[in-house]
Amino acid sequence: MVHVITPPPTDVSRNDIIWLAGPRLIGILFNWSLLGVLTTQVYIYYLNFPKDLKWHKVLVYIVYLLDWAQTCSASYDAFHWFVYGWGSIDALYDLYSTFLNVPILSSVIAAIVQAFFAWRIWRLTQSRIISILIVLLALLQLGGGIAVGIFVWRDSSEVARSDGLVSAVGVRLAGSALADTVIAISMTYFLLRSKSQVMGHMNNVVTRLIRLTIETGTMTAIAAIVDLVFFLKATNGLHQVSGVILCKLYSNSLLVLFNNRMIVTSSKKDQTHFLSNSSGTNTSNGESSRELETFKAAVPRVSTLDLDGGISVSTKGEWRSRSQIEAIPLDDFTRH
Questions:
Q1: Which phi and psi angles does 305 have, rounded to 5°?
Q2: Distance CA 34, CA 29 (A)
Q3: Can you give the pLDDT at residue 24?
Q4: Which helix (H) or strand (E) holds 294?
Q5: Which pLDDT value is given to residue 6?
Q6: How many CA atoms lie within 13 A of 211 on its CB side?
């Protein structure tokens, strides 16, 4: 395997430089911003869910570390483009470690998140067909991402567009978008069926979950499609804006899923609690409280789940201070 760099065009114009350097700079800025959002979410998870299952914690922290590695690799490229190689056309057209941070690390993070959602759908619906389909699509896009990384490493130039590279990019991004679409449709369908089985406050909870599922699934799918379209149709660096931040969208959607189990309310004593009790009333030790708000969406503690979509809800109604807060295990949402 030979590592070469195709020389840049000899007639590079000012507009070519702008449309190549500009999207890269914007992508790096968004990447660091989303890493900051992810860091905040990981900190919230660390504080509020110390009793989560160990493998849930390992999953969260592995994804977080991979995101840091991806951002550091992308920043290494940015330093070569805008600092060490400032004013050099050759440096601007070189992709340096892009073979690692865009296709490989992004695909690994996406595959982890998609596989987790596949597990969650299996626990919710017991549908092995849908879960296996999502896992296969996740592995397909992962394989495409590794192939893209190999092609980019072999010829780390912005102008390289071999047939193999184009096909691998198509497999990676189309497979990722399709997996996200299947996840969003499956989760929405299940939650809509469950919505008819609950009333009152829990109906609002399920509605919020449906909205959250559609938003996160649509966001990652659109980002993958936009990246693919820009790569195939545009002759500039626009595809790198969505390409370098795609993994951060997956990571943040995963942390939103973990953290939305928490319901936060603002009261006179700044207390935190979870859901109302089975009678539908809230207790606050004599203190009046304002209307409950959710952190994105509240996930109920579900004790049973029938195959026909019926659910029975068991909730905790006691109020607790921040120091006494207990996590609602994510597994409780999927436990029979």
A1: -145, 115
A2: 9
A3: 94
A4: strand 293-294
A5: 83
A6: 11
Q: Which own/partner pairs from 196-202 qualify as long-range (CB within 8 Å, at least 24 positions apart)?
A: 196/309, 197/309, 197/310, 197/311, 198/311, 198/313, 200/280, 201/275, 201/276, 201/280, 202/300, 202/313
Distance CA(274)–CA(261), nearest Å, equals 8
263 beta partners:
294
Largest CA distance in the chain: 77
The Cα 100–Cα 243 span in angstroms is 12
Per run of 10 residues, the mean pLDDT along the chain (length 336 residues) is: 72 90 95 97 94 94 98 96 92 92 96 94 86 96 96 89 92 96 88 67 69 83 93 85 95 91 44 37 38 34 34 36 44 44
Listed residue (169, 170, 207) closest to 191, CA to CA: 207
Q: Which two tokens stand for residue 79?
A: 């330093």
Measure the CA–CA gap between 125 and 282, rounded to whole angstroms.
31
Q: What is the pTM of this model?
A: 0.78
Q: How far apart are CA 208 and CA 122, in angstroms?
A: 21
By three-state DSSP, how is residue 332 classified?
A: helix
Element (H, E) at 304: strand 302-305
Judge whether 313 and 276 are in contact, CB under 8 Å. Answer: no
What does the CA dihedral 129, 131, 135, 138 come to, rounded to 10 degrees?
A: 110
